[in-house]
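Changelog excerpt

This revision adds worked examples to the README so contributors can see how folded entries look when concatenated. The first example is reproduced verbatim below.
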Amino acid sequence: MGRYINYVFFGETLTEFENDGFVGLQSDLSGLTEVVDRLIDDAHAEAREDRSFTGGLTLVVACGVGRACSIS
């Protein structure tokens, strides 16, 4: 009790897919970092309100067609 898991799912756009297919890298994920950071911060703030909160984990899940992606 007191442990939280936060799931963050994001979808893939098909930008450049017609050129690179499955070997390509998802492009233009520049705004994703800020969104994921905010979602993690929001989940942490909400979990801290629980007196039994002892820790948590965030799992970021890319939902797409199978191309690689990179966010920092």
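The second example, added in the same revision:
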Amino acid sequence: MPQTPQIGSRGREILTAIVETYIASGEPVGSRTLSRENREGLSAATIRNVMADLTDAGLLEQPHTSAGRIPTSAAYRYYVEQFTGKASLTPQQEGQIAANFQGISDVQEFMERTSHVLSLISSGVGVAVAVPGQRNALEHIYFSHLAENKILAVVVAKSGLVRDRVLRLERDVSQADLDLAARYINENFRGWSMEDLRAEVARRLERDRNEYDRIMKSVEQLYRQGALASEANAAPEIYVEGVSNLVANEQDSERLRKLLRTLEEKQQVADLLSAYLDARQEAVRVVIGLEDAGAHLSNFVLIGAPARVGKEVRGSLAVLGPTRIDYEHTINAVSYIARLFDSILNGADESKT
């Protein structure tokens, strides 16, 4: 991780002013502009000297000889460190964001809405990823006898996802026995992930092999034929919105083409979040300069956090945008939506138990 440059209070004040002015205008910032807005009444010459020191420290750069200065990635990192954990949204701002999630109790719907809300808040790209495993927590299962040796298995997940499949059995099972098998599974495994459910059923079948009763014989045959199978290789649900925000601000056509290709390949977006966000992190992470993922992302920032329900990670949410982004507001919005996710979805899960 790059070392944070050591600058004094005057340098910090001027650097902050340059970063915020550049974020707002997109134009290189000159000493005269700063001297007009400086509350200490510093002269343009004094500010120029401080700017020269900040440039030597790698915090500013000069795009053209006659132009003012613009912040480097190191400057943005320093800027973010100054307010991280010290600022928050106002109650009014929180209320405006929360209003977008009223009535939502499903992970996928929340994530889809999140990508939209983050794109509006940040003027960047809103990204939300729902991990596939959590879609398989069992709400209930139902079996229907269709014909001899042929049944319909319907699995309803806690997320609201419904999956059905037609199975051919080696021997016929009556509707009464199918109902008994479904009741056994629902009473014993409601709320379990399909992966854990299958593992436990397999364990019980092996343990009680010599004591099979009528129910377990039906459960075994249904299990063997895939009634409890899950989408083991299912891709995560990935929601991306706000690509047009980047198109409007990117002048380099070749870089824009590569950027659009990355965003069109949603799995690449999920891989990007996976590479930079750690499921164990508690706070929002800000990654400035994504050149490790591709040269075309060198001037971009990722602001993201895991999405948890309790201690269980259900996905991740982030903003992908240019380094010239409203960091404070975006960081606070990502943090608040992550907390909102826990609050809303935790309540939804509890209401189903």
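Reviewer comment on example two: The chain has three domains: 9-83, 91-131+236-352, 135-224. The radius of gyration is 27 Å.
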